UniProtKB/TrEMBL annotation:
It comes from Kocuria dechangensis. The keyword Disulfide bond does not apply. This is Oxidoreductase. It comes from the Bacteria. Coiled coil: none annotated. Residues 268-350 form the 2Fe-2S ferredoxin-type domain.
């Protein structure tokens, strides 16, 4: 810090009219009073479509708890996009994200990230974390849903001799299973960790959570364990319904919001007033998606109604909350654009 303050004073003496921060950024790309940044220190392929990106965050980062996620900002064609990614390393280890290429941002991260790149980010968040007191655990994951659970396994299994964890992970085939080698080694080394890899290709079907028979076979004492689940929406919906019926304890991490089936209505014309853009949006397209498609620089974060980074003032019209179907809107009201759609003509102050 002392070094930075001295540099800052020297920079002030020589750099007017540029701010000292502008020049310090050349010396230290992580230096920014306004925006937390991170330097990419390694990019490691995991499968054909996913990589682990390790990074060193600048000032303002808090160490993550196992299972938490962070918002990551990436510049694509001059526009900064924000998405959330679980931190896949164990608590207390240098942070990393493991990204599977899927759409705009994830594909850019997987295909283009290089060591030395600077990412924008926000401090870790989330309450999908390990229980406070040790308990037998069942982890149910599918696809990239393994990432927060991997952080928990890396935190718990090698450090706690009393750990008792069963992981049932579903993926199409061994080549597409994240962290497969490391998980197999952990299962060999630590008797308190049992791994069930469910390869849908080999078994000819998905893990069925609509009845208890697959779980009874994979983990006979599953009812006695605190359960954690992360994966695609239908996988989690089935797990929640099963645990509701069995009155068990289940924590779920979702990567996308739960929308009410058929919540979308007729939609309408959306005006992005200060950006001078207008677009016709159907009743199931979020205002965030509609704005981004029209080229408006929309604020966003989790994109699932949690973080409130996407709030935009409403000037006129009404919006529909796609999670509940509720229609609301008063002039000046802050609208969560990631879970709201137009309910008739809408005018937004952005
Ligand atoms: C708390 C949290 C943690 C997350 N952790 C991870 C992680 O560790 N690794 C990771 O790869 N992604 C993770 N995601 C998902 C990530 O934030 C992005 O949504 C994902 O990378 C797609 O963004 P995109 O810009 O590439 O796709 P977009 O261009 O924004 O969207 C493409 C389409 O894919 C859909 N989609 C988004 N995510 C999924 C998914 N997981 N499965 C199926 N369809 C999906 C979207 O609804 C959309 O229709 C997490 C999301 C949240 C909210
Ligand atoms: S982007 Fe997080 S609440 Fe909308």
């Amino acid at each position: 810090m002392v070094r930075l303050r001295v540099l800052s004073r020297l920079a002030s003496a020589f750099t007017t009219p540029f701010s000292p921060q502008d020049f310090l950024r050349l010396v230290d790309p992580l230096s920014s009073a306004r925006q937390l940044r991170a330097l990419v220190t390694a990019v490691e392929p995991e499968t054909a479509d996913s990589v682990t990106i390790r990074f060193r965050p600048g000032k303002g980062w808090n160490p993550h708890e196992a299972g938490q996620w962070a918002r990551i900002g990436v510049e694509i064609d001059g526009v900064r996009h924000w998405r959330s990614y679980s931190l896949s390393t164990g608590a207390g280890q240098d942070p990393a994200i493991t990204v599977t290429a899927m759409g705009t941002v994830s594909t850019a991260l997987v295909r283009n990230t290089k060591v030395g790149d600077v990412l924008f980010l926000a401090p870790p968040e989330g309450d999908f974390v390990l229980p406070e007191h040790p308990r037998p655990l069942l982890m149910l994951t599918a696809g990239s849903g393994l990432t927060p659970v991997m952080s928990m396994i890396r935190t718990l299994v090698p450090r706690r001799p009393d750990a008792d964890v069963v992981l049932v992970h579903s993926s199409p085939c061994p080549e597409e299973a994240l962290f497969a080698e490391e998980l197999a080694e952990l299962a060999d080394q630590f008797p308190g960790f049992r791994l069930v890899q469910w390869f849908t290709g080999e078994r000819g079907r998905r893990l069925d959570l609509t009845t208890t028979s697959d779980l009874d076979a994979a983990c006979p004492d599953w009812r006695d364990r605190a359960a954690y689940a992360c994966g695609p929406a239908d996988f989690l919906d089935a797990a929640e319904a099963l645990w509701d019926r069995e009155e068990g304890e289940l924590r779920v991490e979702r990567f996308s919001p739960v929308l009410l089936p058929g919540a979308g209505g007729e939609g309408g014309r959306v005006t992005f007033e200060r950006s001078d853009q207008e677009v016709e949006a159907d009743g199931s397209t979020t205002l965030l998606e509609a704005g981004e498609a029209a080229g408006v620089v929309m604020p966003s974060g989790c994109r699932m109604g949690i973080c409130r980074s996407c709030l935009v003032p409403l000037r006129a019209g009404q919006v529909r909350d796609l999670r509940t179907g509720e229609v609301h809107g008063e002039p000046g009201e802050l609208v969560q654009t990631c879970i709201s759609a137009a309910a008739g003509p809408v005018n937004l102050d952005i």
